[in-house]
Amino acid sequence: MRVLVYSDDAGTREKVRLAIGRRPATDVPLVEIVECATQPAVIKHLDSGDIDVAVLDGEAQPAGGMGVCRQAKDEVYNCPPILVLIARRDDRWLANWSRADAVVTHPIDPVALAEAVADLMRRRLSLTRAH
Asked: Which domains does the chain carry?
């Protein structure tokens, strides 16, 4: 499965990539990571239909992951499940506004992130099988 990781910060993208690993859980397929540093690249990849799950950094600049998530949910046909990384627990309401499917807070807890991504992968697999 292809997992898109968006952040303008290469260090954040690396932490996410390492947390997800090759397979975030034993019952999900192997992962291919697609890294993006800009909002236009994210939308291009999501529009292609080749992305199964996306992880967006809510603190990315100049386009934050929550705004990008909201745009994707509004504009991308068959938008994949999206996880948003937030800096503060108080930002959870913004993540709800963005229509994120999952939320993980900074600093990144590798176990929590891997579990959340695996859950979204399972959701995507069940939707794919239903169609």
From this structure: 2-130 (3.40.50.2300)
Q: What is the pLDDT of residues 75-88, one digit of tens each?
A: 999 999 999 999 98
Which are the contacts of 58, defined by CB distance < 8 A and separation ≥ 6? 64, 65, 66, 84, 85, 86, 87, 91, 94, 95
Closest among 129, 125, 131, 104 to 28, alpha carbons compared: 125
Segment among 17-21, 24-28, 111-115, 127-131 with least mean pLDDT: 127-131
CB 1, CB 121: distance < 8 Å: yes
- Rounded Cα distance between 120 and 3, Å, is 10
Is 131 a residue whose pLDDT tops 70? Answer: no
